[in-house]
Specification:
Blueprint (H helix, E strand, L loop, with lengths): L1 E8 L4 E8 L12 E5 L18 H7 L5 E5 L7 H5 L5 E3 L3 E3 L3 H19 L9 E6 L1 H12 L6 E5 L7 H6 L9 E8 L6 H19 L4 E8 L6 H14 L4
Parallel strand pairs: 3-4, 3-7, 7-8, 8-9, 9-10
Antiparallel strand pairs: 1-2, 2-4, 5-6
Length: 251
């Protein structure tokens, strides 16, 4: 089942909607892993998705008897606030101009307020081994940062089409961070996400350099995946869903 619940984001002083998937027929002693995801409104149902198409996560988990709780945090729909809240670094891009980082306080809130709330009110396994994070685009960017800086909380990060290139140098400068052993990071990108083959090649090179840097960390496993003919959309990410679900043994 999927249901919504309002929650208060303390550092922003704003209410926000959680979109939560919980398997049917949970046994009394069953404790579920939890996947925290960004853009929760785009995960389960087409009729509430921003562009009328969702990832289809509910259908997939129902069909495969997925034993996991998925907690999707809806984004801020006010102007460009989604960009500010979903970036761990300041950056500039021609399309959006200067974007001021507000994502790190959101990450702290997710760790210190959201996770305890979910663990208290739902049948979760609160251990690091059963706590994951994931998202696409800016949500994928946030997930990558969280894997780098908060691997003591999250053991797996699903970084689908992360928006990296305007922040590439900052990511590379940040790789002196410690990442806990037994951390798994999935990173994907699609060939048709970029306007030219040249930009696709540049983005691929940047992603591979980040992957190489991650693999130098002891005990860190990285699963790269390139969807050559797919674009930057929920339809593409729905096709990708079985890949990371299985490769990362998420559900």
């Amino acid at each position: 089942m999927v249901f919504t619940q309002e929650i208060f984001i303390t550092p922003y002083q704003l209410n926000r909607t959680l979109h939560i998937y919980k398997p049917d027929h949970i046994k009394d002693n069953e404790r579920l892993p939890v996947l925290y995801m960004f853009d929760g409104h785009n995960l389960f149902y087409d009729n509430v998705a921003t562009y009328g198409k969702c990832w289809g996560i509910k259908d997939y988990l129902d069909q495969h008897n997925g034993r996991i709780l998925v907690v999707g945090l809806e984004c801020n729909h006010n102007g460009d606030q989604r960009l500010n809240e979903f970036t761990p670094y300041d950056f500039y891009e021609d399309e959006w101009g200067y974007v001021k980082e507000r994502g790190r306080v959101l990450i702290d809130w997710m760790i210190h307020e959201l996770k305890p709330f979910i663990d208290k009110n739902y049948p979760t396994n609160p251990s690091r081994e059963c706590t994951y994070v994931g998202g696409s685009s800016m949500g994928g960017t946030m997930s990558l940062y969280m894997a780098m800086h908060h691997s003591d909380v999250y053991s797996k990060a699903i970084c689908v089409s992360p928006h990296i290139y305007p922040m590439y140098k900052k990511f590379r400068e940040d790789f002196d961070c410690h990442i806990e052993p037994h951390t798994q990071i999935y990173i994907s990108w699609g060939g048709n996400e970029y306007p030219t083959h040249q930009i696709f090649a540049m983005a691929t090179d940047q992603n591979l350099q980040i992957i190489r840097a991650l693999l130098k960390k002891e005990g860190v496993d990285v699963i790269p995946h390139v969807f050559k003919n797919d674009n930057h959309s929920e339809s593409a990410w729905q096709k990708e869903l079985p890949v990371w679900m299985k490769e990362c043994n998420v559900a």
